[in-house]
Amino acid sequence: MKIEATYDIIIAGGGLSGLSLAWYLAKGGYDKQVLVVDSTFAPVNNKTWCFWTNQPPPFLHILYRKWEKARVSVSDYETFQNLNEFNYYCIRSSDFKECVLKELRQHKNFHLAEENILDLSSNKDKAILLTKNGKHYLADYIFQSIKPPQQLDPSEVEYSLVQHFLGYEIKTNNRIFDPETFTLMDFENNFSPGIGFIYVLPFSPQHALIEFTVFSKSVLAKTEYKQRIALYLQQNFKLDEKDYEVKRQEYGEIPMEIRPHIPFYNDGTNIVNLGTVGGQTKPTTGYTFLRIQDYTQQLSQSLITDNRLVPPPQSPKRFRYYDLWLLHILSTSSEESLLLFKSLFKNNKLDEILRFLGEDSSFFQDLKIMSSVPSRPFLKAIWKNFF
Ligand SMILES: Cc1cc2nc3c(=O)[nH]c(=O)nc-3n(C[C@H](O)[C@H](O)[C@H](O)COP(=O)(O)OP(=O)(O)OC[C@H]3O[C@@H](n4cnc5c(N)ncnc54)[C@H](O)[C@@H]3O)c2cc1C
Fold first, then answer.
1. CA of 372 relative to ligand 1 center, distance in Å
2. Which of 113, 109, 94 is CA-nearest to residue 30?
């Protein structure tokens, strides 16, 4: 084995989690040698990361937009609400990548390698990264966000749904969007299997990202998302295809599943899983951005102060049960899921729902939310998962 170079840390995958870790290490003054490997460092705008928080947001200086008002529409119910407790933010992946890479290039101990990674392995004292070009890089730790852990047994994954979506970023000459109000969910009434809804991020009166999103077991043909977006623009804004220009498309598949927490990639303890493959996605919403920020911040602190690993924070047990029950309902009945969302949005303020989904609610607030939705599907889900 010809060894190309040895580092203290290798970050395998320079996407959201890998670059977040690199950012917090660099900003925190980590002075050992770090290599970040990705197939490309081109700052591509292919992900629009949104999140809500009542704290000062991370990466404040590159936030693309912020909203304080949201709209939801489900069946015959529609609501427009001010968010009093939270703001909803978005960051473009291109801005994020550009900003982090600019910072890393100012630190002599941070190195970038544009390489395709073929394999990750461990021996007694080192973690080893092998590239497609046959180069071996060694480190004390590899933090990887490129492959699911080897020990992940598919039979241990419960309710494996996917949140899949395709978005059009459009520009039009007509001033039709309200840039103050984003649409969190505008449900399609008779969608099956699963649930389908439109998500709208208005950037200006003439510029927006419109996504058709589905929670279901398998993805659709790309034309199906596109047809639904076109129909939505036609029915809601009277826009025909000739009336707007599609500047960019954004496609994603995010796992919605309950799976065992597996901290390491293989049987060793020096290749650590990060990001989506590290199980940091909230199963019922797909939101991952803030969880990645929390974990990579904690991890970088621990590496800087005493070169130790810390495990990612786990959701409190009760929220894991709520996720389990909700995934059960989503995977068994589109009709019941739609009814559930309708009662949820009708009987609770958006702030309360976001607090609950962000796992910041108290047990009593959870009970209020639970008692506001039909109990039958939940009782069935609880029965199924306990007995
Ligand atoms: C389109 C889209 C929109 C999303 N929007 C949101 C959102 O609004 N809010 C939210 O909270 N979450 C969102 N998510 C979910 C989640 O936050 C993102 O998927 C996030 O990018 C996950 O970060 P990650 O580091 O795990 O993976 P990634 O960001 O995908 O990083 C993995 C990196 O590894 C590199 N890589 C992979 N394989 C190899 C290889 N063999 N060799 C070299 N490099 C390799 C890739 O190039 C990539 O840069 C979205 C996901 C998608 C797909």
1. 35
2. 109
